[in-house]
Task: inverse folding
């Protein structure tokens, strides 16, 4: 569809943004559905974030994604936050809504939560009340831990971290969602038992990401077994060393590409009101790799 005077822009606020797959994902979906939208990556330095959000608001943007380093900084700049965004303490999606009196409000959402959960839907029965472990304690781990606590009420949820203090801040901040006192923090060096006895293991560190594809966040692959689900948030490569080694031991595996596309699909629906054509998008991303 040609860009014309009716085209509705959607942006990505980040710094840097050149590596982002979001323009490919969303423009593929807009074209596939013949929607007159365009998605552009907008590099915005932290000191310019307020001006950028004001700019998008008056320039008629439908919405935007928000990525590193702005996911926290954008929170005071929105008019309304979703429950998930407030709980995780991060926003990855803005929606600009025009009210009846022509005022425009800014809604902040965190679609990483639903994007993480969607690929787990077919395992829900196994996951309710199960013991689990999350490797890493950064921004993605926050969304994952909140999603797991609020959806599956796990019997145990171990945050496995290199920097224990950071993991303790995370568990402290999410304690109000931990109805069963499931949260615990364990240093990476001491986590073998927690990994072996978890039904779900999530990698929320960047370990294994291209170009360091020979690295695994959990190199002791004999700790994996059938009956486990191993979920890697890393999406490039689409099959990481962690997933390959877990699959050889009989575990079910989920790659980060599924989450990447599911979180994008949730943002896409916020902006357009339509479901994303996820198979076409996945094919476009795999062809790009
Ligand atoms: P982040 O905030 O920088 O956190 C990274 C975490 O990994 C921290 O806890 C960090 O530990 C830990 N870590 C980093 N290097 C490590 C190492 N060598 N050994 C042990 N731990 C290490 O990053 P993030 O935003 O949470 O993202 C994490 C990963 O998830 C990235 O690969 C990102 O691409 C991926 N992700 C994927 C999706 C998706 O849609 N698939 C969405 C979001 C994120 P310290 O605290 O000790 O530094």
Result:
């Amino acid at each position: 569809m040609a860009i014309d005077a009716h085209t509705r822009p959607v942006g990505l606020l980040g710094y840097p943004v050149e590596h982002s797959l979001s323009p490919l994902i969303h423009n593929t979906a807009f074209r596939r559905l013949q929607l007159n939208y365009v998605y552009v990556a907008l590099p915005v330095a932290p000191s310019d974030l307020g001006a950028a959000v004001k700019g998008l608001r008056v320039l008629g943007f439908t919405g935007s994604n928000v990525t590193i380093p702005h996911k926290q900084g954008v929170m005071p700049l929105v008019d309304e936050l979703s429950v998930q965004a407030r709980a995780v303490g991060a926003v990855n999606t803005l929606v600009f809504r025009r009210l009846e009196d022509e005022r425009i409000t800014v809604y902040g959402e965190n679609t990483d939560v639903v994007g993480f959960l969607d690929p787990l839907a077919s395992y829900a029965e196994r996951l309710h009340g199960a013991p689990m472990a999350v490797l890493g304690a950064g921004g993605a781990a926050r969304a994952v831990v909140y999603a797991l606590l609020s959806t599956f009420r796990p019997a145990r949820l171990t945050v496995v971290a290199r920097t224990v203090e950071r993991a303790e801040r995370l568990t402290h901040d999410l304690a109000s969602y931990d109805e069963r006192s499931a949260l615990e923090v364990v240093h990476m060096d001491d986590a073998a038992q927690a990994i072996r006895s978890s039904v779900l293991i999530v990698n929320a560190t960047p370990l294994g990401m291209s170009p360091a594809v020979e690295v695994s966040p959990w190199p002791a692959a004999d700790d994996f077994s059938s009956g486990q689900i191993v979920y890697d948030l890393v999406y490039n490569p689409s099959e990481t060393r962690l997933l390959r080694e877990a699959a050889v031991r009989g575990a079910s595996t989920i790659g980060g590409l599924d989450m990447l596309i599911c979180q994008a699909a949730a943002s896409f629906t916020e902006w357009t009101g339509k479901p994303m054509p996820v198979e076409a998008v996945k094919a476009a991303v795999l062809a790009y790799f």
About this structure: The pocket of NAP is lined by residues 112, 115, 136-141, 161-163, 166, 204-207, 209, 233-235, 256, 259-260, 263 (CB under 6 Å). The first helix runs from residue 22 to 32. The radius of gyration is 19 Å.
